Amino acid sequence: MEKISVQDVTFSYGSEGADVSAPAEPAVENLSLEIEKGSYTAILGANGSGKSTLAKLIDVIEVPDSGRIVVFGKDTSDDSVFWQIRENSACVFQNPDNQIVGTIVEEDVAFGPENLGIKLPELRERVDQAMKDAGIYELRLREAASLSGGQKQKLAIAGALAMRPEILILDEATAMLDPRSRDEFIAVCEDMRIKKGLTLITITHDMSEAMRCDRVIVMSKGSKAAEGTPAGIFADISLEQYGLRRPVIIKFAYEIARLAGVTLTEEDLTSETRLRERLTNILTSPELPDKAIPEETTEEKTENRRKIMSVKDLFSSYDGGRSFAIKNINLDVYEGEILGIVGESGCGKTTLISHMNSILKPSSGEIEVYPEEGVTLRCSQKKDVQRIRQTVGLVFQYPEYQLFEETVYKDVCYGLRKMKLTADEQKDRAVKAAKAVGLEKDVLRKNPFELSGGQKRRAAMAGVLAMNPKILVLDEPASGLDPVGREEMFSLIRSLREQGTTIVIVSHNMDEAAAYCDRIICIKNGEAVTAETPDKLFSDKEKTYKFGIDQPKITKFTGMLKQDILKILPGCVFERTRFDPEEEARAVYRAVLKAGHKDVK
Amino acid sequence: MLSDISLGKYYKADSILHRTDPRIKALLYVVYLVVIFLISSPVSLGALAGVILIQIIMAKVRPSVVWKTVKPVLPLSIFILILNILTIRQGNLLFRWQFISITDYGISRAVLMAIRLMFLILSTSLMLTLTTTPLKIADALESLFSPLKIFKIPVHEMAMMMSIALRFIPTLIEETDKIMKAQVSRGADYDTGTFVNRVKGYLTVLIPLFISSFRRAEELSVAMDARCYKGGEGRTKLNPLRIKGTDVLVVLFLTACAAGLVVMDLTLR
Predict the structure, then answer these.
(1) I want to staple A7 with a disulfide (CB 3.0 to 4.6 A). Which of A68, A409, A500, A503 is the partner?
(2) What is the rounded (10 degree) CA torsion for B169, B234, A116, B167?
(3) How far apart are CA A462 and CA A470, in angstroms?
């Protein structure tokens, strides 16, 4: 059987450079693994575990310092087969913008085969076929820059397929996509794998994506930490030590199993359907242990809270009123809540939050901010605008790309200098802000570029927090972070809320939005279609779909599970939907117990 | 505001001039450049205006777009007109007041210069920018300058750089907008204050923009590597430049017009 074989490979960046005196930490160290031809493999691991480096080594963009990599019988250190290996494997990277070379869609798809010297008419045939396979044939004459993120990533896939590779490597290729584009993208890749017999390697932070693969390889600190089927890997709790988290559904299942005192086998985890059957069996079994599980306290209601911001009849246009990016938005934000804004890509979420901070001027309508009792700031009043910007802190997506000063301290102080505060006040506030985001004091002295990805993002957030905003608006605060980074980001958001900051989050991850937000506003085509608590919004599948969003993964799964249980225990009354998988597991368990007792009587 | 200006922008249409080989358009452009500066008699200038009108029809460009192309140059054109009227002292004196003196020759030269400028803008737009995508212009330049390869001038690489630069303009504009918004939300103000302060304000935009461009360049180079880019050697093209029958007709017609204009002007002098 042909395979990709990595044998005891060590590699560090910059080793061929001049800086020999300070050898860099190896990105990959004593790594050995094998990937079978035609298989579907996920490579998991925390940021900096060497996943992307592995991809580059297989595609011969880098060559190992020591050890050997043999791709389908060809050694990557052999110069005579170098191009053959590279031609045979194609990559799709994370940022769609940074891999498009051509101005026009079809020209970009042709870039790879043009490099291979493929002549017309085969070239044309390959390009057209690849565009059809990726589902972008209708876009072939469009300018690449005018495509949406999801379309750009499909363009990248088409560009890869046009080279007719045997290996396709996805390097966090879905990280910047919204859930629907992500599903479409994965569907294209999986379809191509089956039709063309591709060897598909996906590097991902999304555990649910990994569940779909045949094999999972876990990397940690540059070497292989574990390997197995997804079921086997996720059955083993020790994977948390490598910075990974179980998929929400698995978390849910294990909590049920723990309560019921049964053990789940690898077999049970092989597919969602099988897992659902097994859980239904456990939960409806007469031997289900009767346990008193205390109900989690319900969160306080928002109604009696003070209103802190009010958006009234807001219309906004980028073309002088010919079309509206957002229309007729009315919403209130209450002090101390976490408000989620969800919706498809391009629905106007970012436009809405830009208005909250008065960066954009409404075409009509008003935004009022009430920083304290009896004070009303209006975005239409010029004198209020500067105060609104201080009251409502805005952190855009990937804020770390916007750091510009030579030290973190200076960057954090940027807004404070603009407020003309004294040096002492600036220092005081900067130190406080750094503490609030969990950065050590000595990080302030560092250059932003010495920090890790997660730290950079915190530093950028500190710059906004230093201005002491009452409301903090965050656009996709966790995008691009690994599972541990995401967890830390959300616990940071919760602790900021506890310190009295009102939070508005824009997110396309429904599981996180549902788990962390008190209320969720859903935007569709520029209009706010609903504002509800997560359990009201997400418990009805049809309704959720109508709003242009998906249910959280956990809710999709438990929704079907609950139906299965109802077939056996028709008297079962389920509690309101929870979004923390373990909490939901306990709620389902309680409901089943109650129903079960009724039947016995 | 910026969208009201058509100067230098591509106009999407399916016309004879759009379909003409970009190399031919580049060469014809040079021919007309010479013609514009060669002829000077009013009649032949009128005839040239007629030829340009034919080109507009050939390019299927709407009159409003033509106007948007010319509009931004009008102030400059009027400035040149007035400057020439006031500074040329040869010819018969028509008017004199204090240090201002206007001559008949001055007026005719001034009008000629202004008209030439307008023609220049129109023919650049029609032959190149309005009817040819930037990528095709880069392709044409690569092809026209390819003989220079024997002098080891990296013609392919330069054309590649040019087309990548053009490809990234919209991306960088978007990014600049994001950075500026983030800084405005932290209290930045780019439009008030002293000149020095304003320049400093823009520096805070340029630094992250530069850094991210380097990051993009690095990622793009890895992506190009992964797609087996190895320079111009052995590369094929999806849409190679090829001279077609209509191209020959366009060349014959427009060169004939150019020659006619020159002959007409010489006989009228």
Answers:
(1) A68
(2) 0
(3) 14
